[in-house]
Amino acid sequence: MRPTDRAMPKLVRRTSAAGALGAKQIWLVFLLGLGHAFSLPRHSLPVSRWRKNSSHRVAAGDVRHFLAGDASPLLCEVGARVGQALPDKLKHKELFEAHAVAELAQRHLTQWRSEGLEVQTAVELCAGCGLVGIFLALLDRRLRVLQLDRRRSKLAAQLHEMADSWDLHERLGWRVADLRPAGEEAAEFEPGSLVLACHACGLLSDEAMAAAVAARLPLILLPCCYARNPKALVRAKRGHPSFAWPRYPWLERGAVNRLGRDAVDAARVSFLEQNAYKVVYDHIDAEITEFNRAIVAAPT
Ligand SMILES: C[S@@+](CC[C@H](N)C(=O)[O-])C[C@H]1O[C@@H](n2cnc3c(N)ncnc32)[C@H](O)[C@@H]1O
């Protein structure tokens, strides 16, 4: 008999006895029971040895493993909360990646502060589900985090709701906005901000960099999607958000893109250095993603 066959009649008895429960709650109890009953292959390993690029979703059955977790306590706490509150929604890869990116950002924020560069707000561009910013707000209690994306997914809204239980609501904001400006100018940011973009695809990473340079703000960029032939306009259209070559002179109207990933990042770094930025490459664990390189730049 499989573990679920044993568990189901018990659950049915329990739920029918609890006649006052609503249908939603009964399902929740049922799913939590199933999650507990199913033992997945990863459950025979400690959390630190789970596959970090897995597209399996964080499940209710993962909760007790996170709670007994041998990985970073914050990663395990958030993993457990996600498994409890939002089972089967968030990919394991997204959990590990968001935590790794936030830790990387926090390391550099600490270093910059020790050198006298104050950052009060992290502006996370192309924030996706928003978990990077949530981890960062949990790691850095002095920081406000403003997250921008052209849409707000249901998961992003649910994760923000979940983050309220950590009392983050005053330091965590979301704005729906297109990162591409509607014309020649780059987007604007308040002084004291850090521009942070994780996997803003292709030219969106260049757009983030253009915005940081225009405002002379520190930048943490983990680029991805290096198209060899990206499309951008020679002249930006007024009133229409668009990619426009004049905003990214380091790409030489796409000639650099044709040379591949390393050439594109080298051109980004070189442009930042020419504009009086101190730049270093940093990395998150390559087991999480092949796009694990971060360009970390602070104005000097
Ligand atoms: C690959 S996802 C990265 C999400 C998240 N940063 C992460 O690492 O998981 C790219 C995100 O960029 C957003 N995006 C795409 N085009 C955009 C634009 N023009 N302005 C703002 N956000 C955009 C998408 O909605 C999506 O959430």
TrEMBL record:
For this protein, the record's InterPro entries field holds: Methyltranfer_dom
Q: Which Pfam families match?
A: Methyltransf_32
Q: What sequence ranges are listed for the domain Methyltransferase? A: 103-227
User: This chain belongs to which protein, by name?
Assistant: Methyltransferase domain-containing protein
According to its UniProt entry, this protein's organism is Effrenium voratum
